[in-house]
Amino acid sequence: MTARRLDGWTVRGRVFATLLLAVYPSSRLYSQDSQFGVLGLGTPGRYESVRARSTGGAFTPFDPLSPLTEAPLADLVVLTATAMEGTSYRQIDLSGSTNSVRSTRFPLLSVAGRVAPRLAVSAGFTTYLDKSWDVTERDSTLLRGALERYTDGLTSDGSVADLRLAAASRLTRRIAIGAGLHLLSGSTRETAERKFDDTTFHAIQQLAEVRYSGIGVSGSILIGVAPGLSLAGWARSDGRLRAKAGDSTTALTDLPRAAGGGVLFAPSPSVKIGGSVAWRSWSRSAGGGPGAFDTWSWSGGAEIGSGRMPLRLGVRGGQLPFGPGTTAPTEFAAAAGTGRTFAQGRASIDLGVERLERRSTGLTERIWTVLVGITVRP
Question: According to the model, what pLDDT value does residue 334 have?
């Protein structure tokens, strides 16, 4: 199954999208990940550790363990490794039809540490795009003068990972900078199958193993404005996502540029309050055409308590890049969490829970996600 480049989309993707848009109100969609990733490139990943996500993402630009920005790495003192796991319980309401699915992901792994008095480096991966979904549709067609019922199944299983190599340096007591190189790599197994209710008709199936690759660069700055008050800014530019089936390039898709910033206020060691905003130009992925949207997102949160089990709270909102309507889908989430240190601070476990709601024309997702993060400082 091959396709030529067409305004940043593959022909196969356009055909799938057209089919889905045509039958959207009556289709049954079962997805391991968000339904809002079926019609586009996938579901964008979250560049957040459990601690940052428990604050709604507000602390992400200041968190050295979140692979969004690089400058906070400059303040790491010892070698640190972290990983996280998330389990989501998703309820999907599609034009009055409700289904529930569950998924488990391991979206983040990172190792970072100081290699010189003014230089810290980090290597790891996170999810750039999740491309796992399963769509089932019931319909009929006229064959030999008789109406024959059939089931169409379209599945994609896989993801695109962001492999990041980052470095940061503290230039002065108030200013730290960082930069990162991002290698995008992954694959999906895609299947299109039609089965007739009448078993005298043969089932039709097409399979494709699609590999993805790309590259991006990013940079960030961290500024201490005053005691207890910090500002962060970041920018990122990704090139094109190359899709290959066999030895042939089937698509070259423009990836977004992104920028954002945040503010963190710590009036005391036991209280931290933060907020952040981000913009991404996902409309580039559709070559300026319909189906993909530029997005804005925001978050605000706090961490209370400087002891062994602080309380973290946060909210976030914004837009999603892909959806069936003429306007970008929206999302809103509230999160809470805590953490606990062990072994004289050499190990910690972070726990979080998030309630997320996503909305678009005819489609609503309500998601509970339980998060577990482990950090080790050997």
Answer: 98
